[in-house]
Amino acid sequence: SSGDLKLNVLVPKVAVGGIIGKGGANVKQLRENSGGKISISEPIGQGPGSDQVVTLGGPQSSLEYVMAEINKQVQALGEEP
User: Fold this and answer.
1) Cα separations (Å) of 52 from 33, 43, 61?
2) Contact 11/69 with Cβ under 8 angstroms?
3) Which residues form the K Homology domain (predicted)?
4) What pLDDT does residue 64 have?
5) CA distance 81 to 64
6) Rounded to an integer, what distance in angstroms lies between the CA atom of residue 81 and that of residue 79?
7) pLDDT for the residue numbered 81
8) Per-domain boundaries in the chain
9) Based on C-alpha coordinates, what's the Rg of the chain?
10) What's residue 78's pLDDT?
11) How many other C-beta atoms lie within 10 A of the C-beta of residue 58?
12) Cα–Cα dist 61/51, whole Å
């Protein structure tokens, strides 16, 4: 619809696993809870420092919800010893 937005977010590859979840469970739940579209690119670059593009689509409220969840995953990585 005309109110839908699209956002590309660069996310560290190590955080993407938490976003996707086991067997895709987390990303499926994110899609259901937010009502938005989420797609994840192949890694850009090699090794643990590579990033992946997470593309979000939907109304602003959906994007804000998913971004908050992505931020939680990225911050959780920063807190690991």
Assistant:
1) 22, 5, 23
2) no
3) 3-75
4) 96
5) 29
6) 6
7) 62
8) 5-44+60-79
9) 13
10) 76
11) 21
12) 25
User: Which pLDDT does position 80 carry in this prediction?
Assistant: 65
CATH class assigned to 5-44+60-79: alpha beta
Threshold 0.70, pTM exceeds: yes
Closest CA to 41 of 49, 32, 50, 33: 50
The structure tokens listed for 68 are 């908050």
Using CA atoms, how far apart are residues 31 and 39, in angstroms rounded to an integer? 10
Question: 38 in helix, strand or coil?
Answer: strand
Residues of the chain with pLDDT under 70: 1-2, 80-81
Chain length of the chain: 81
Q: What is the largest CA-CA distance in the chain?
A: 45
